């Protein structure tokens, strides 16, 4: 059977697209391997009507809503190979060798963060260390915070974090990444910059307590932000050849269309910052509508109305 659309990635972007397509009676399969990006955190913030919801609860509600529509199917699997066929359809191969053929493909596989190897960072990430102040700044307001990062993005992040707490210390872990003017700006705001390499983060089940430096000092902090590297969770660039945006993710137009005919992307996969659940869901919704519109036009011209 040729499906109308396969969606690789069932996070908010993919699921909202599936909701639109299911309501439009499209035959859709969501392929998802169950590894959402925010699974490390206990609460999600900033999604109107769902502020402070647990990520697992959000996902449960979303799947219940989407799978009410009988033409939508969910396969728990990893999609590991994708190609575009000569007739414009897409062949999606799952890890177990199972294949799906679809007229349209939506990639909403998200991104993943590559965290610093400093001991304790992974344990604290999602519990007391985060990457996005819009997501978690409110919960850390007025606390003694660390901003940890070894590249130039640390300046912007620290300015941002300072709006939630004035007690901020920057840790560059041995890197010299701040210009002299930036250092004096930070000094004016009372933000200390510590360049000494970090030995480890002392924490209690992920709750940051101290940043322990290699010179033996321990600085008390109860939470903070890090500057991870972000990479696409799945990349099908080699076989599909879509254009990439300036951040290295899938380039889309304002409607979620990629440079490859019939291929769409939304959410973190087409990341161009800031990365948020509600934004991913909104982009997914738009892509779903665009995919339905494209399918409708194709079918309209293929099957003229009987006279
Ligand atoms: C610690 C942390 C806290 C956050 N807090 C918030 C917050 O409070 N508020 C907020 O708005 N945002 C928050 N975010 C950001 C938010 O999680 C993302 O912006 C959002 O999840 C993006 O949605 P998405 O649908 O694009 O991708 P995702 O939610 O990452 O979903 C992608 C899905 O695709 C699946 N997948 C990937 N590759 C494949 C493949 N090859 N085959 C099958 N399935 C695949 C994944 O397993 C995943 O289920 C947080 C992120 C992190 C890391």
TrEMBL record:
Keyword Membrane (UniProt): no
Residue ranges annotated for the FAD/NAD(P)-binding domain, each copy included: 4-284
Keywords: Flavoprotein, Oxidoreductase
Keyword Flavoprotein: yes
Coiled-coil ranges per UniProt: none
Annotated Pfam families: Pyr_redox_2 (PF07992)
Cofactor: FAD
Record-linked InterPro entries: FAD/NAD-bd_sf, FAD/NAD-binding_dom, Ferredoxin-NADP_redctase_2
Quaternary organization: Homodimer.
PANTHER family associated with the record: THIOREDOXIN REDUCTASE 1-RELATED-RELATED
UniProt-recorded name of the protein: NAD(P)/FAD-dependent oxidoreductase
Species of the source: Paenibacillus wenxiniae
